[in-house]
Amino acid sequence: MADVPQFNYTIMKNEKDIQNDELLNEENVVEEVQTEAPEAANEDSSESVQPSAEELLEKANAEILDLRDKNLRMMAEFDNFRRRTAKEKLELQKTAGERIFVDMLSLVDDFERAEKAMSTCEDVEALRQGLDLIHKKFVAFLEKNDVKAIETEDADFNVDLHEAITTFPAGEDKKGKIIDCTQRGYTLGEKVIRYAKVVVGE
Question: Which among 15, 41, 140, 179 is most buried, taking Cβ atoms within 10 Å?
C-alpha cells in the first residue's frame, strides 16, 4: 500500500509538466504571431507606397509632354532670335552704307564748286590748289573708312598685293621691284579690294 501514493505523485508531476509545456508553447506561438504581425504590416505599407504601373506610365507621359513643350518653346525662341539678328544685320548694312554716302556728299559739293570755278577762273594755280585740297579731302575720307592705298613706290613685287601687267629690263638692282604703277590698288582693312597694276623690273 505504500507504493500507491508515490505512483499518484509521479502522475501528478507529469501532468504538471505537461501543463507547463503547453503554456510555454502557447507563449511561443503568441510571440511568433506578434513578431510576424508587424512584418506583415510593414510589407502591406511598403506595397501601398509603391506606385502602380499605370501611375508610372502616366508620370512618364506627363514628363514627355513637358519636355516636348519646352523643346518647342526653345525652337520658337531660337527662330525669333535668328530672324531678329538677320533683320538687325540688314539694317546695320543699310545704315553703314547710308553713312558713307552722306559723308561723300560734301566731296560732291567740292567737285561742283571746282567745276564752276573752272569756267570763270583765270588763275590756274589757284584752281590747281583747290583740286589738290579736294583730292586730299577724299583720301582722308577713304582712310577714315579704313580704305588705304597699296604702297608701290620702290616696293618689292608681291602677288598678294600687286598685279604685274608687264616686265621691263631694269638691271640687277631693280630685279623683282616695282618700276611703275599704272593704277593704284586699295585695301579695306586687311582685304584687298583692288590690286595695284604695276610694271616689274627684270
Answer: 179
